[in-house]
Amino acid sequence: MKKIGIFASGTGTNFEALASSDEIKSLADIKIMVCDNPGARVIKRAEDKNIECFVFNPKEYENKAAYEKEILEKIKELDYIFLAGYMRILSKDFLEAYKGKVINIHPSLLPKYKGIESIKRAYEAKEEYIGVTIHYVNEEIDGGEILAQDKFKVDYSKSLDEIESQVHDIEHRLYIKTAAEILKGEK
Asked: pTM (2 decimals)?
């Protein structure tokens, strides 16, 4: 059974999707949830599932290297790291320690709309399709080899909130499917 960690910063809906999936639970043991936001809702979600949490405030550290060193100590046994709305950029040193083992989900059809507010930017640009990308993480923001994408044709009679909800539905389904493939060695 693989040992995985999930990193998150916010509400934790993608964390919840992965941690609640029977398929993921049959393939992996979620050893830890790492969060850089002491007020994030994802902490309660992890606690409710009896998953160890490492919660830190980056402002309480001298620099990124200091908090990443502590994270690396906490996760040294992991086979994979799944980023689920983790809003920190991982350093080159961190990525070297887990080369090819860090996976991210992003709410756009990469390479378009990297960074924040991706759904809003795609919606405002009147893109015909909006979707989700799952990719390996490298040093480039929202870069790295694309593992999976899914999309839907946008109905502009729907509000941005409704479109965001559609994106989240795809995220949860696609992340579970792709994570399971990774854990089985199929990706």
From this structure: 0.95
